[in-house]
Amino acid sequence: MKLVALFFPKASIGTYLVAMAVAIALPIFAFVTLLLLQLEDNQRSTLRRETAQDALALSRIIDRQLQDMATTLRLLSSSPELENGNLASFHERTETALRDNTLFVIAVDHTGQQLLNTRRAFGTPLGKTANIPALEAVMASGRIEASDVFRGRTSGEWVYNVTLPRKNEPVAALIITQNAKDLGKLVTTEGLASGWSAAVIDESGHVVAATGPANLEPGTPFDPRILPALIASRGVFQDETILPHMLLGYAQIPGWSWKTVIWGPIAQASILSTWRFLIIGGVALVLVAVLGAYAVARQVRTTIRDIADMANRMGEGHIVSPVETSVIEANQVAIALSNASFDRSETEDRLRFVMHELVHRTKNLLTLAQAMMRQLAKQSDSVETFRAAVSDRLEGLVRSIELLTSEQWGGVSLRRVVDIHLHAFPQSREQIDISGEDFVLKPDAVQNLGLALHELATNSVKYGALSVPQGRVRFEWRDVSEEDKPDALLRFTWEERGGPPVTEPSRSGFGTTVIKAHAASAFRGTVEIDFRPEGLLWVLTAQRATLERE
């Protein structure tokens, strides 16, 4: 703490802001000096990265062209005319399809003899293709490949081929050929600095197409001193002996044997900086920073006092209005304090409402518990019987309360209420069939229907269908509203079968009171109970409005 007090003594916010301005300005001088020294290195690194990226971009352009040619070959290879051996129709169709392009198709047999060439009319005598080694390489590999650049016999131009091998006869391979100068239209130096060139190089190191001041013609060997260094998928090459003051970027065209290269002079960045300008500018910066810090300190001090006054009034319990300042963040704090004061007032009102609601619900639960215990006390012949009966009923009531609490007393789905009460008897889960359209019950309906279901299930487990393995219970509910009556009605049916013979009890106990009188009263409906020999039948017809949460 003493060390902190030494470096940060008690002072006004203005003093700290001025000190902060000076502390920021001084390191700037050292930082700017370092930047001046490193700027050229950074520019060189950026140029190397951009050069490699430009070479990669060019390789993607050439790759798209080669891929398009390969796709065209695949489509042509599956044409019906070619499959049927109708080369004349195939020639006519292919020539028409490629008429607007600079591409030509050649079909050859396994010896390289041209069967057709869309550069010439069908039937014109043709010799073997000029690039037999490329054809043999493709036939051996079994995949589409691009050839090296060569002088075409038919066209007399520098051309390259993309060849697709076929296993059919007589056409053993399909070739798409293009003049190298036409491919050169895709090789551009647009976006590069002045004095830069670009080229596409084949596998043997000859220029396929090029553009720029280097003025390399197709078929020209590229510098053999550079080619051995271009072994990575992409990168840059720099050698002051071979390329003085120049940089070369290259990229392998994925899936093909060609490369793209771009090269040109390195522009030396001009960095105009002097110590005199740096010192004068630095002093001016410090003075401006100090004056600005003082002005800001005054404004911030006033703002902080206004916010502190709001906080004091909020602490006294008032709802405060936000103050308007010139500091956006301070305005946000003021709005947050104002909202917090309003929220606190609302929370206090909500707490008072919750306490009132808690008292109301507690009274209702206690009243229900008292009525339940009075009824059970009249019918119990011993303390142990009374205790067991009370514990059993309270357990059912607790399930409903836990459900409501998990939903913050906002209502629970009918299906969930049914499941929680009927499945409380795990030994009978497979014996109960439940059906009906689900909806959300009111909190009071959750408790009242839960009591009735608990009594029905408990009675069935003790004396009814659920007391034996072969017994079955069907519990369903459905809408029984009549069209001429506006009030919607629901009918709940509890039907037991397969249990011990049923006889009507000689006297009504608490359970009968719950499932009959209490259920009818709670839901403003009617309850029918039929003690049939084959099993108990309980039917509750109630108004939907007394059950469903709005």
Structural class: alpha+beta
Mean pLDDT: 80
Evaluate the radius of gyration: 46 Å
Described by strand count, sense and barrel closure, the largest sheet is: 6 strands, antiparallel
Task: Point out poorly predicted stretches.
Answer: 269-273
What is the rounded distance between the termini?
Answer: 62 Å
The total beta strand count reads: 18
Strand content: 15-25%
Q: Give me the strand/helix succession.
A: HHHHEEHEEEEHEEEEEHHHEHEEHEEHEE
Identify the overall geometry. Answer: flat
Question: What is the number of helices?
Answer: 12
InterPro entries: HATPase_C_sf, Sig_transdc_His_kinase_HWE
Protein name: histidine kinase
Transmembrane segments: 16-39, 277-297
Domain Signal transduction histidine kinase HWE region: 357-438
Task: Walk me through the structure.
- The chain has 550 residues and is α+β, with helices and mostly antiparallel strands.
- The model is unreliable at 269-273 (pLDDT under 50).
- It is built from twelve helices and 18 strands.
- The strands form four sheets. Strands 1, 2, 3, 4, 5 and 6 form a six-stranded antiparallel sheet that branches. The protein has a five-stranded antiparallel sheet with strand order 8-7-11-10-9. A five-stranded mixed sheet has the order 13-15-16-18-17, covered by helices on one side.
- Its EC number is 2.7.13.3.
- Residues 357-438 form the Signal transduction histidine kinase HWE region domain.
- It holds the Pfam family HWE_HK.
- It catalyses: ATP + protein L-histidine = ADP + protein N-phospho-L-histidine.
